[in-house]
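Notes from hallway chat w/ T.B., transcribed later so I don't forget. T.B. wanted the structure written out for a chain they're using in a teaching module, and asked if we could keep both sequence and structure tokens in one place. Agreed to drop them here.
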Amino acid sequence: MRILLILPEFPPSFGGMQTHATYLSRYLNKMGCEIVVITYRITAQKQQKEAKKYDDSQDFPIYRVMSRIGFWFNIETLTELVKSFKPDIVYSSTVYYGLLRKYTSVPVVCRSVGNDLMRPWLGYPYNTGKKVFTNYQLEKIVDYCAHNMDYPAWVETAFSDRRFAVMREAAMNADLILANSNFTADTLRHIGVESAKVDVLVGGVESDRFHNQSQNRLNLRRELNLPQDKFVLLTACRLVAKKGIDLLLRAIGTLRATIPNIHLVIVGDGKYKKKYQELSESMALTDSITFAGKIPHEEIHQYYWACDLFVLASRTTVNSSSRLKDAETMGRVLCEANAAGIPVIASDSGGIPSIITHGSNGLLFAEHDLEDLIKQVNRIYLKQDLSEKLVENGYSKAKEIFDWTVVLQYHLRIFAELTCKT
């Protein structure tokens, strides 16, 4: 099978989409598919060296030719690549390139993680004047600002009506869309995509690597410079508004009355890090909080193993200026926590209920609800039998549903079914 993989977010940058792209491309190549990866071109000189090193280590071609701001340039480039490569199927990690079905005769499968629907970043979405927005130097400036500055709301809201219209047309043209949760699937149906064109496929975790079979928790805490004699909560996320870190800090402040040895470890980085550090100081929580910073994905399993409980306090937010919505559309860290064998508490928000079933592989608390969050933490702390049940069910679900082997085999089966129809 010849497959053209459109994976805009791809290593050496890191994140959930990049992780998915890495596993998918390597798996398809391992299974004997002839694949070509198409991704964004890189403007930062340091990343160019990292990208070359990464690309040279792979057994399949990677073309970094897409523009982050020139959408119609990408459509034209990809259309030509489809004609020259002659794939049996095209796969895109966002719904935007479902539009290729309109210009080629090749089946197109898209993945949607929800944010491509709620906040469709298509750069400049018009055909008229598109050449201006394919300029490499302009893209270099835009890319630098996006990664190093707080850009104004109008950057996201400019041309918003056109961006949403193009996104919707692209989604409608795809042969099939793999939604990462019921929340994302409902969003797709809301914009008019037929239910028959939407499948829900959750998960993506290397359960064998995350499963703790022998590591001693106290030894790990010593190695990671975490407190030895505490009841340790872990959260791992980007430090942005939707992750609910401020709610977690407030919970810790209250829980210290009933669990004096409680401690929160925050793994991750982001633009709100300083804000949350200052908030913890103002609440006199510095002795109860560890900001661990950004941890390489290859090492993060050790933090799960070192902690007693994983918490994800995400909530849906709406930007006050742009009015664009942001939500937790799945939560891969929840899959990882289940695989790692620690109990999980998460908010009943966005796509989280597609991962966590309350009372089975974790506990859910009402979104924004501080008292409910505190209640669920106390349940885990006081009820060892409940904790053990959640851990056992969580690992079973990680192995049987969330594991990469299950997720990737599903992709391959879908590809085979679609190519048989054409």
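Follow-up for T.B.: The chain has a mean pLDDT of 92. Might be a good example for the class.
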